[in-house]
TrEMBL record:
<dbReference type="Pfam" id="PF08530">
    <property type="entry name" value="PepX_C"/>
</dbReference>
<protein>
    <submittedName>
        <fullName>Putative CocE/NonD family hydrolase</fullName>
    </submittedName>
</protein>
<dbReference type="InterPro" id="IPR029058">
    <property type="entry name" value="AB_hydrolase_fold"/>
</dbReference>
<keyword id="KW-0378">Hydrolase</keyword>
<dbReference type="GO" id="GO:0008239">
    <property type="term" value="F:dipeptidyl-peptidase activity"/>
</dbReference>
<dbReference type="InterPro" id="IPR013736">
    <property type="entry name" value="Xaa-Pro_dipept_C"/>
</dbReference>
<dbReference type="InterPro" id="IPR005674">
    <property type="entry name" value="CocE/Ser_esterase"/>
</dbReference>
<dbReference type="InterPro" id="IPR008979">
    <property type="entry name" value="Galactose-bd-like_sf"/>
</dbReference>
<feature type="domain" description="Xaa-Pro dipeptidyl-peptidase C-terminal">
    <location>
        <begin position="84"/>
        <end position="316"/>
    </location>
</feature>
Amino acid sequence: MRWFQEWIGNGPDQAYWSRMDHRANVGRMPPVVHLQGGWYDFFLPGMLTDRAALLAAGRTVRLLIGPWGHGKGLYTRDGMRDALAALDAALLGRRALSGVRVFVTGANRWQDLPGWPPAHEPTPWYLHPGDGLNRMHADPAAGPSRYRYDPAAPTPTVGGTTVSMSSGPADNRAIEARPDVLTFTTAPLAREVEVIGPVRVRLHARASIPHVDYVARLCEVSPRGRSVNLCDGVARLDPASDIPRDSDGVITVDIALWPLAHRFRRGHRIRLQVSSGAHPRYGRNPGTGEPLATTLALRASIHEIFHDPDHPSALWLPLTEETS
C-alpha cells in the first residue's frame, strides 16, 4: 500500500499533486464536453468547478446529474443517451446537447435547468436544543448541545459519497443513536419543500482541543422514523485555521455540503446530523495535529454546539421559487 501512504503523507497543497492537476489543460479540451455525475458521486463538487471553467473557455458543456454514486449512471438509459449524443456531436457533427439536467430525488423526476446553480433562495433553518430545527431563532437562554468524540472509536458513516458499492442513501438510525452524534430535526412538514442547489451549515462551536473535525449530514426522516442521508460535508480545523473566534473560545465554522436536488415530502421531517467523524468516508482526525500517515497517538475531545440568538447555528437550504 505504498501508494496509499504517499497519498496521505502529502497535503493537498504539496508539489506531489501538481502532475495530476489538469486545470491548466482546459484550453486543450474538445469543443463539446459531456459531464456526468451523481448526487452521491464524490467527484461532484470538482465536476461543477470543471464545468464553470469549460464554459469560460468557450466549450459547449452538457451536465447530467442522476440519483447515483460515482460511475453508476453511464449504464442507465438517461446516462447512455446523453453520452451517445455527445459522441454524435463530436464525431458526426450533430447538434450538441447543452445545459443541465438533474434528477430531483423525492419527486422522482428529471428536470432541465438553464445553468447551475438555478435561481434559489438560501434559507436558514436554525438549530435548537433537544433535537429541534426550524425557521425561528432559539430561545436566548438556550444552552449548548454537547458530545464527546473519541478517535479510538470514530463515528462511522453509512452510505453517502463513498467509493464502495454501498454508496448512496442508507438508513442512518443506528448512527444517530450514538452519543457522539447530535441531531436537529423539524416537525413533520405541513407542505412539500423543494431544494435545488448548494447546501451549507454554519456552526458556532467550542472544542476542548484545537485539532478537530466537524461533519454535517442532511437527512430526510419518514413518518415511520427511517432517516435517509441526502448529502454531507466536513470541515477540518487546526490552530492556523482562518475562522472567527470570540473571547470565550467559540468559533464559527462553515461547512459546504454536497449540492442536491431534492423534494422533502409532506409529513416527512428534515434532519441535520452534527458530529466530528464519518469514518472511513473521511480519515479520522487523531486530535494531535500529527500527520495521518505516521501518527500513533489519539486524543479525544469535548464539543459544544451553540444555538442561542447570539450564536445562530443554522442549516442553509436552497429553496426553489415554488417553496421559498
